[in-house]
Amino acid sequence: MSEQKHFFNAMTALGLLLALGMAAAAFILGVQAKHAVSSQQSITVKGLAEKPVKADRAQWTINIGVVAPTQAETLQAIDRERAVLENFLDQQGLDAGIRTVDVQTLGPHYEEEYVHDTPRQVQRGFEGYQNVHISTTDLSKIAAANQAILTLRADNHPITSQPPEFLVSNLEAVKMSLIADATKNARTRATEFVKQDGVKVGVMKSASQGAFYILPATGGEDSDNSYGGIYDKSTVDKIARVVVTVVYSIE
């Protein structure tokens, strides 16, 4: 009888221990499941930041193009026109120290003529070209010279120019400052989205940067995407803009 009583007591204790173990396991699994569900909940938002920037450097390319009967005469014509151009640039305050000159190039000059009503290309002398590049921080002189150069065309000088490019030299620093501001903006947006649901924005799970934009301050967009986005080079006053995409956990 005593052995049966000991056996009964042992089985009772074992049952209690098993019950406590199962309850503890259920509690732990419940907490883990709750954390797992919580970790899977997230919100994805975009953050935007922009600020005005001003160009501090200008680049300008001017083209000389001539046609003459012989190669020697073509080279001489280029030299004459370059002298005219250099005199013009000196008068505009754009001295030789900020100019670079490409090597002259020569090639055959073709004209179309008809033989028995059939068009064909016939060489008539040679073409010669030379480019002059200007790089300066004096933006006002470039803008003024770009308008004044039309007088050379009016005087029948074969000189043309490309639109000046107005550049921002510290783009990387501008970009870094905007990324920080855009990330702050993303958290603010995420907080605004979830505040009605009684949850909080948690840690950042991932982030990615979109394209970097340099836009005209007056609106509109330039098609040049040389900086991984849009880079307006036609205006002095610009707007720098960056967009980031951030994923936050929800607590």
UniProtKB/TrEMBL annotation:
Signal peptide: none annotated. It comes from Methylophilus rhizosphaerae. It comes from the Bacteria. This is SIMPL domain-containing protein. InterPro entries: 26kDa_periplasmic_antigen, SIMPL/DUF541, UCP029033. One of its GO terms (biological process) is DNA damage response. Pfam families: SIMPL. Transmembrane segments: none annotated.
